[in-house]
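Reading a protein record of the kind used here takes little practice once its layout is understood. The fold follows as a row of integers, each naming the local backbone shape at the matching residue. With these conventions in mind, the following record can be read line by line:

_____
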Amino acid sequence: MKLSVIIVNYNVRYFLEQALLAVRKAAAGLEVEVWVVDNHSVDDSVKMVREKFPEVHLIANDTNPGFSIANNQAIVESTGEYVLLLNPDTVVEEDTFELCLQFMDEHPEAGGLGVRMIDGSGKFLPESKRGFPTPWVAFAKTFGFSNLFPKSKRFNHYHLGYLDEMEVHEIEVLAGAFLMLRRSVLDEIGLLDESFFMYGEDIDLSYRIIQAGYKNYYFPKTTIIHYKGESTKKGSLNYVLTFYQAMIIFARKHFKGEKAVLFVWMLKSAIYFRAFLTLCSNFFKKSFFPLLDAIVMYGGLIFAKHFWAVYHFHDPAYYDQSFIYFNAPLYVAIWLTAVYFSGGYDAHYHIRRLVRGLLAGSVLLAAVYGFLDMEYRTSRALVVLGAVWAIVSTVALRYLIHFIRYRNFSLESNRTKNLIIIGALEESERVQALLHKAQVRKNFIGVVAPWQNAEMDVYLSSLDRLDEVVHIYKVEEIIFCSRDVSAQDIMKWMSRLGPGIEYKIVPEESLSIIGSSSKNTAGELYTIDIQFRIVSPMNRRNKRLLDVLGSSLLLLTFPFHLLLQNMPLAFLGNCWQVLRGEKSWVGYAYSGNQAKTALPRIKPGVLSPVDALSVQALDEPTLQRLNFLYAKDYHVSQDLDIMLKAYRRLGGGLG
């Protein structure tokens, strides 16, 4: 066997399917065996591999032992002269394996090989070639000097920014997303170090290859797509901690004496520094719109106070100063809370959710106003003026921010993007059907033929004139049919058209359409798989709010329930467990095959959809169907309805 391709998978079924289809094409005519090691995925990855790729050797772990251990499992059983460690969120070109094997055969001094990688927007990924993380290199990267001076040999040795991305180079560190190894070298230096759970194992292996007297090469004569971010979100605190802890393991293993102490100290400092920056960045991203709204609302209320005092009462000092430090902050807090629970901050440019939240907040504010002490009932007119200002100002603010960022006033929630499909007519029609079933709204422009001399009454143009089509029709999204368009052509056009367009690929016979618009965001997909409303942030949040408010109200009125309804004492235990988040008032009905239904996980329920029905017993398929519909069409009003109808059962439970 010439080549053993090893892919470690964890819950990225759709990306794995696309990667395996690309591998199948690249392996045609070569002696290649493919191994997939699944680290206990719960998304039917194993089932998909068995059904669609019977030629693949599959190892299905019942736990997640980590990246290194999983790769070693397959390396030990594989037989190839060369071993390729490949990420599941990658797409290789049709001649990638052939070119890489040819290079390795011609360079017996090569222990490992990496290739040129681009992200889902067509941009070059600098981690395609890297240098060892010495203390200075780590310092320059951690504190941003590598970004300030990307072409500097001194400041950007980490990404070797001074080396031409289109030339073959001898490098120090190979990227784990595509890492081709000579088996004889692996036999000499050993397998992946299993003390690395995720990240760092590629640096450690690259270092040991060079220590053994071999060379690592960067080979840009072939390109792959690496979507990135599928197993760990790159902007998360967990990623920062995991990555730098891996660097500490590497430093302690390979550096001795003062150099090791200095390096470990710097890495620990970097952990705290980057963790602080990550927390600040995440906080700013989440709080930017609420803080901006709060400032605008508060400023408007202060202006309305002064305006109404002068215009209506002809007295600038008519209102007490308590309005500034009590009423105005209270009004703003109620409006912001209402917008939050209506989902207005989950989708920043979703005007309907924003206005819905502000209207609900205004109604709540009117109710709260009636309970305020007379001292703080300043004026109903200010409540009305404030509500009008809050709606007008926040909507205008979003249009302004959107225009500054995107140079148009078409908010993302209200517009459809111009889309073209590149492929044969038959396949393009299948893609359109997928988009329709997935309920994806696009302004479909037409189809571009993947060959020259296309029939102009059927196709927009041929592939060689794609740039003209994009310009004329202001195309914003392109879907490539991989059955009809080669990976080389896909990557060529992604690089040529640049990151201003969103690119997606539909694998042959697949029910998913995959892509990613940035190297810093996880890949995204359109799929006809059922979208469960119960997993949306807004619905999860509202479900939890109902649990907390419902439990609090039930506890406060417990004597009434005990005296008039003879409620059992278990009722108190349920209230306490729901308050603590151990249960929810409503969950799934118990089903013997619950694990096989692949429903989103939620807390066990005191009640279930069955409790709202006047039935004695239901068969297994009916129970599963009720659970399915509950998750698919969930709204918080369902829980409230079930609780009211099954009030006498609140002292029981499924949990």
Remarks:
- The mean pLDDT is 85.
- The chain has 21 helices and 18 strands.
- The first strand starts at residue 3 and ends at 9.
